[in-house]
Recover the amino acids of this structure.
């Protein structure tokens, strides 16, 4: 078993070291540190706005509860809101705040990633679970305590969600950090995956490598589509920058208020990137019940005065359908990547069974497009489900892309691109080889 350096407590300042710290205790301390740092990151902008008289509520306990509720939201914990609508006949209304600012969720994730690396260095291979269990119990305790203290008559918190949902980004970051430090899953969990695979049959290894490569190609397609969608989002913000600035000027929130508003919008940048992916796929997204924002047109009702929303393309778009090519291009890249990976064992097996090459080549490429497209669509649907949520009470209880529609559109378009990319791959490879040969034969080379 591999062993990492054990972290110890200092006995004094002379350089002597005392007894090793128990792993469960070290994990708990790492979690407490991450929870406190992430809480301070949330408290800082709220305290700055409070210092400039930006809140109607000035009591310390109200601000502390607001900070705790914000901490729960960035960890994905929904808040159940209730209020009384004033008017001729006052009536109670309720809703859920479940829109997660993924850009701010990265903060506890990175803190957990750091903690996971530190715990991996301090643990034996077969003892890491003690540190992880201790850290997760402490973080869950911090979450349930925050939910209990910060709930009010107007803001409800389901305590089980407050305990469990913060563990999702935290545990994911910790496991990835530990895996990064260990260098392999076998060192992390004590199971030699290579030896286990070696004991399987050749057909199982071929099928496994084929499906694994197809899943990786799906990830390549998703990342390429996200990159292109994010680039289009940046271009759209630049084009409509004057409208964004106009909303800032109309709000007149001051320097501190404007900075806090900008920070909140930056927290939703990953969400907007997923919205852009849904937009270019054709499935679109919602900005309120009954609304739709897509490449073929936009129909939304009154929107809150959030500057970034001013950049939404409005009205009919004559050439909006051109955006549909983005997932196809991402699929082309994934198909070419799969060809270079050289793991199309299904095509090899089919060629052995059927001696008609034009049929086997077409059939295996079509199957590859279906599998990789399905993997891409599944990942896109997962992102859409994470970014879809409710902004509270009223018509803004439906914001974001529909997971199923997004998955289907992205899967179909990426699958078409994979077929094109895999079929055109040999021609692209030959052109690259000829270019390299020409460069090698050039004078002075």
């Amino acid at each position: 078993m591999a062993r990492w350096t054990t972290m110890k407590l200092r006995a004094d300042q002379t350089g002597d070291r005392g007894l090793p710290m128990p792993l469960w205790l070290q994990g708990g301390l790492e979690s407490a540190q991450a929870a406190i740092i992430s809480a301070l990151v949330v408290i800082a902008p709220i305290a700055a706005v409070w210092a400039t008289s930006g809140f109607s509520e000035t009591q310390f306990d109200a601000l502390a509860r607001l900070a705790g509720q914000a901490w729960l939201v960035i960890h994905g914990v929904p808040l159940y809101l209730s209020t009384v609508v004033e008017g001729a006949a006052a009536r109670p209304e309720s809703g859920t705040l479940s829109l997660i600012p993924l850009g701010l969720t990265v903060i506890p994730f990175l803190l957990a990633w750091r903690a996971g690396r530190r715990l991996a260095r301090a643990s034996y291979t077969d003892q890491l679970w003690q540190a992880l269990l201790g850290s997760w119990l402490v973080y869950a305790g911090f979450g349930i305590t925050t939910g209990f203290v910060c709930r009010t008559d107007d803001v409800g918190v389901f305590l089980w969600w407050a305990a469990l949902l913060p563990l999702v980004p935290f545990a994911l970051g910790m496991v990835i950090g530990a895996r990064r430090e260990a260098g392999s899953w076998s060192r992390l969990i004590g199971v030699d995956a290579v030896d286990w695979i070696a004991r399987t049959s050749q057909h199982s290894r071929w099928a496994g490598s084929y499906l694994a490569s197809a899943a990786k190609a799906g990830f390549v397609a998703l990342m390429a589509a996200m990159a292109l969608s994010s680039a289009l989002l940046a271009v759209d913000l630049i084009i409509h920058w004057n409208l964004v600035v106009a909303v800032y000027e109309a709000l007149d929130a001051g320097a501190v208020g404007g900075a806090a508003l900008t920070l909140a919008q930056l927290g939703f940048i990953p969400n907007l990137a997923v919205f852009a992916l849904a937009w270019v796929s054709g499935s679109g997204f919602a900005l309120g019940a009954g609304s739709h924002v897509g490449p073929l047109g936009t129909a939304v009702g009154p929107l809150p005065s959030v500057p970034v929303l001013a950049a939404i393309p409005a009205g009919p778009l004559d050439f909006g359908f051109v955006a549909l090519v983005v997932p196809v291009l991402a699929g082309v890249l994934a198909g070419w990547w799969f060809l270079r990976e050289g793991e199309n064992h299904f095509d090899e097996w089919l060629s052995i069974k059927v001696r008609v090459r034009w049929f086997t080549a077409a059939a295996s490429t079509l199957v590859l497009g279906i599998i990789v497209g399905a993997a891409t669509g599944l990942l896109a649907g997962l992102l859409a489900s994470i970014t879809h949520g409710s902004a509270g009470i009223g018509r803004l209880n439906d914001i974001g892309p529909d997971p199923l529609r997004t998955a289907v559109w992205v899967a179909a378009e990426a699958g078409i691109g994979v077929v094109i990319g895999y079929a055109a791959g040999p021609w692209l490879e030959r052109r690259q080889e000829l270019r390299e040969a020409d460069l090698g034969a050039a004078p002075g080379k």
The chain has two domains: 8-195, 200-440. The CA atoms of residues 44 and 415 lie 46 Å apart. Confidence is low (pLDDT under 50) at residues 1-16.
